[in-house]
Each structure stands twice: as C-alpha cells, then as structure tokens.
Inverse folding.
C-alpha cells in the first residue's frame, strides 16, 4: 500500500483517507457551498458538522431539499453495527441525524445490525451482538430523540418487518454485484452475502423518499440499493456522508469499537477517559517542550484536536484559538489533551445519566412488528 | 445429455433418473431389507411406499430407529415450495410423513417456502407465492393431521422464528459450498444464495434429532445442513427420500406444478382429471388395439400404472393384476386410464371436501412466532 493508498469498505477502513479521491472512487458528490446555503436557509442554522466538512459528501441531497421545499415529505434512516459498546465516534451521525430530524420535523429509523456483526466477526455470538444492540440503543436514546417520531430497528427482533422488503431487494442483486461492491470472495459466508439486502430494507419502510446520514464507509451498501431501487418500483435513497472518526492512536483507520485502547466508550469513567487520552491519543506535538515551544504542534494530525473539531468544540472561535495556540507552540500537547479530557468527561457525565434513564424508555423506541 | 444422463437439483429435474446411480452420486444409502424389517417391527405395518421402493433411500434412518428404540425422541419435518397449486405428486411425502407421525407419535413441522419460490421464479411475486403457500396448506391439512402435534411454517410469516437459527447455519456456509452443492453462479441472486439456511432452520427448531421424509431432489439442502450441523453443536438431520413422481406426459422430469398439462391439481374437477389423463397421460401401450392385444403394454413406463403404484392402489394383489393384465395385452391403455381416473376422482372428492373444511382449521396449524 503506497502512502496515498487507503481502503474504505463497510467492514475495513485502513490508511490515510484522501476524501477528494474517495468522492471520485465512490462516485458521490462533494457538498457544495450552494448546497450548504440551501440547508442553512431552510434550517436557519449553520451546523458546525456541515460548516467544518465533517459531513463532506452526498448523493442526491439536492433532491431531498427540493422535494422538501415543494412540501413533499421524506424520512431519515441511520444505524450502527453492534460489535461492542458505543464509542464517541459513533455519535457523530446520530447527533447530526437528530439535528436534521428536528429541523425538518421527520421520522427517523435507527437500525442495529446484530446479524451483520455476527456474520462478520468470527468470535461473536448472535447473543452477544444482540446484547450490544440493546446497549448501543441506550446511547442512541440518551441523545434525546422523540419516541413519537423515532423507531429503533434491531435486525433479529424486527426481521419479520424487514425480510419481505429485503427479499424484493435480494432478488435483484446477484453474487457478482456483491463481489464488485464489497470485494466478497467464494469464501464469504452466505449470511454476509445476503446481509446487504437487510441494510437496504429500512430505505423502503415508509412509502416516502429517505435521507441517510452515515459514515462514508457504509456508502457501498446504498450504492447497491440505489442501483436496484427503480427495479422494485422505489425511489433511490439519498445520502449524506461523514468522514471517518480517527482512532485515538492516530490516523490510519476509523475508531473501532473492537480495539480497546484506540477507543473511548460512552461507558468509560472520567479516570479511564483521562488515562486513555493521556496514554494513547496520537499527538501532533514535538518530542519535547522546548522544541514544541519553538516549532509548534500540528493540529491537523493531532487526534485530540480532531476530536474537538469533529464533536466536542462546536464554537468556531474557541476552536480557532486552540488551533492557533497549538500551532504556535503556546499550547502544549498535554494541555490540549486536558482540554479534550474535560470536554469529554463533561459530555459523558450527562450522557451516562441519560443513558441510565434510557433503560426505562427503550420499549417506547423499539419498532413493533406488525 | 446421453441416454442415461439425468439432472436432479432442488430446482431442476430432467432426464430418466437411475436411482441406483443417484444414490451413489448423492452419497445416500439404499433402504435395505434389514432397515425395512426394523421399521415393520416397530410400526407393525408394511407401508406400501416402503415395500414398493417409493421411498428408496435414506441418510441415518438407522440412527433414528435405534434412538427411538432406546426411548429417545425425534421429530419430523417436511415441506413444499409453493410455486402453484398442489398437485397429486406432492402428497406422496406428506402422506408418508403422516404415517410416520402416527406410528412414532412425534411432532411434525411442515415448511412452505414462499420466499424460495419468489427468489427462484422470475415471474412470481412474493404475494403470489405467499397466496399459494396458504392454498397448499389447505391440502396438507386436508390429509388429517393432528393440530396438537403438527405445525405449518410459512417462511415469510415465521421468519422471526427461523432467522436466528438460519443465521447460525449461514455463518458456516460459504459461496463455494453453494456453488458445489447447487451449481450456483455469480449471476445467482443473493436471496437464493442465502435461502438454503432457511430450509435448514426447521431441522433445529426442537432440541431433538429430526427425520425428514422428502423428495430426493431436496437432498442437497440437507447435505449442506449435515456438513455444518456439528459446527453449530447440533445433530445431523436424518433423511428418507422418495423418488420423483413422473409428469403426466411421461418420464424425463418430475411432475411440475408450473406446467399445466403435465399436472393434476388437487383442485381439479372430475371432468378435468378425466380429460387430462385421457389426453396427456403417457402410455406404455401399443399404437393400436390389435397390436396391444398381441404384444401387450409396458406398465413400467406407463404413467397411469405408475400413479397407481406410487399412490392410488395400495393393494398389492389388485396392482399385480393390473400389471399382469396390461403386460399381457388383456387390459387396454384406455381401460388402465379409466381405472386411474376413477381412483383419482374418488380420492379428490373426499380430499376437496376436507380441503374446504381446512379453511376453518388453518389458524390452529400455523406456527406462532414467539
């Protein structure tokens, strides 16, 4: 793999991702300033994740906006593969989905793909992925969604609802398509091969267009869905993609729930957060304080700074000050880490309280099979 | 395809099947006279379908018998792909399953694979195959099963129950396995590829060994199941296979529900039965009466005779007389057809009454998802 090579698939992200190249490779569209203005005009808000390019790419977001302006409805759909506890990187599309839901006043479906993680992880049982699905659901609910307009789909629990839709999709996708899209081989298990049709299914759960905010690594599933949508008499799903959240240990992969040290979980205690960041967070600083003061740090590769940019410091002025101070050498790596630790622990304190309350709310959120 | 070539897969049967060769090809065991005796000793009956080799092959039927003799339980499972109305050939394994159920006093699951037929038939919608599933269920119920011990599984209706089991199976089967077993290609749709795990699922619906009476064309599915059973901590399913029921128009394929003229449906009126048999039933007779009287007919290739042997004339003496009379030329082809027409119409008169009553019983039989 050469320096500018990278891999982005739903099950494997590796290398230093060049997002402009990825847009070309995947055939998506960069979010233009015109599109940003349109969204701003409708929502009366300039969301920092859009402004900062955390959401950077889309497919037919324009159509959704135009339809909305004509008074046509749509719904939102996003999800998560429950291979472990929720980490803070997962919250990015969920928080953004919540914002879209509130601004556009639409329904949202959140899919927990316990079957997928069972198929793709040799060491996980279906009981385990199902247990993580419920754990992850608590984090989702803790973000404050409205249960009237928000339903959680757990694949093994809601297969009765999903399967007849998935079957329509599955009949139109062949093994070649999945080879070309996901790089499947003859050794891929038949659960994995079929699975993409279950990730497609919620796109057609309401008879309306759908907009999917999601990590760009999940785009291949919906490329297939878009290819076959018209064959089953449906509209193509529209997508809006966020960048991959770097692992604590630095660029070269997305934050993975399976790798303990590279990951801050929503269930981590303040002490654990502090230790993980101080010990593992990849730093853009210089080897010693003297050099750092002289040469300054590099915020663009510093994971602590990136976490502030992506999630924990929505205020542009404050963020800019941190950027400039770190770059100039005024702010030391340890100090930058302290800022992030405080932000995360502040967030997690409230989040963990809400997460505890979510245990009483979960039933309201679970989709009921007809 | 040379004269002794034939194809037997779950979706395609063609050619003149040599069952001894098929046993070798599939790696099953011929039902031995020892096994027949064992079954006779337990059941106190010499079932004509066993005696005549309509059920001719098995996998581990011995183990089921031995376990039974040790007081260990088992359950039965069979099914049908609802691509159309039930034809009389379908009833063979169902009637035999009923006999086994009564003799061994065990539970029976009957699976209607509406999803499979949707995946495999380009022209059928899921609504259509589901409608045929309910139609076929009526024929099954009409045979007089005990609803306390008999449950009907309709795949799209019971996917909530089947999917978690199927997922365990699917994780252990890869695309290569399905290529080798079913001849799937890169163009096979992903519903079909996954489907075999759903046909496996009922094997593990109870925590007991299973015995599956079924048409030998369905054996490949359970060959896969048997290959992976121990990997998921389960016992291999045991099987007992019936021969393919010839189409009305003669050997060279099984009776297919999709081909109108080669098929007698359980819903056919007496007139239609008469017309179909007189017009289409492949005859082993001579071109004219004079030659027939002189040379005699060939009952071994005569479809009317075969239907009597396989299903409609359980009495050996009566059957032998028909055989001898036809062979000697004493019985004409038209007379043989008349015997069959009368037998079928007599059967269908009662069957259609019971089928009508089954509409009131169906709810008792449908498996309820937990």
């Amino acid at each position: 793999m050469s320096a500018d090579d990278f891999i982005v698939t739903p099950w494997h992200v590796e290398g230093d991702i060049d997002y402009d190249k990825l847009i070309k490779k995947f055939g998506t569209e960069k979010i233009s300033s015109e599109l940003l203005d349109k969204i701003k005009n409708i929502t009366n808000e300039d969301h920092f994740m859009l402004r900062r390019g955390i959401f950077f790419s889309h497919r037919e977001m324009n159509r959704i906006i135009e339809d909305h302006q004509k008074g046509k409805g749509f719904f939102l759909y996003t999800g998560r593969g429950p291979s472990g506890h929720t980490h803070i990187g997962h919250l990015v599309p969920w928080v953004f989905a919540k914002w879209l839901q509130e601004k556009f006043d639409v329904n949202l479906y959140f899919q927990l793909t316990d079957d997928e993680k069972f198929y793709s992880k040799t060491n996980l049982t279906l009981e385990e992925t199902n247990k993580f699905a419920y754990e992850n659901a608590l984090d989702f609910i803790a973000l404050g969604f409205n249960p009237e307009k928000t339903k959680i789909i757990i694949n093994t629990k809601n297969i009765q609802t999903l399967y007849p839709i998935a079957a329509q999709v599955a009949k139109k996708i062949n093994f070649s398509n999945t080879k070309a899209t996901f790089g499947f081989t003859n050794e891929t298990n038949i659960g994995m091969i079929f699975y993409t049709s279950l990730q497609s299914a919620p796109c057609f759960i309401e008879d309306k267009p759908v907009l999917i905010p999601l990590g760009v690594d999940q785009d291949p599933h919906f490329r297939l869905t878009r290819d076959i949508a018209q064959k089953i008499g449906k509209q193509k799903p529209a997508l809006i993609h966020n960048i991959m959240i770097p692992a604590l240990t630095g660029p070269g992969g997305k934050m993975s729930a399976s790798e303990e040290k590279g990951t801050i979980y929503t269930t981590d205690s303040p002490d654990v957060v502090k230790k993980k960041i101080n010990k593992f967070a990849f730093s853009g600083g210089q080897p010693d304080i003297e050099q750092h003061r002289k040469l300054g740090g590099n915020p663009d590769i510093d994971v602590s700074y990136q976490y502030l940019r992506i999630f924990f410091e929505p205020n542009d002025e404050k963020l800019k000050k941190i950027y400039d101070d770190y770059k100039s050498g005024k702010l030391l790596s340890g100090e930058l880490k302290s800022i992030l630790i405080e932000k995360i622990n502040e967030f997690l304190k409230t989040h963990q309280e809400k997460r505890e309350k979510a245990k009483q709310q979960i039933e309201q959120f679970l989709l009921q099979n007809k």
Observations:
- The mean pLDDT of chain A is 95.
- The two ends of chain A are 49 Å apart (CA to CA).
- Chain A is about 50% helix and 15% strand.
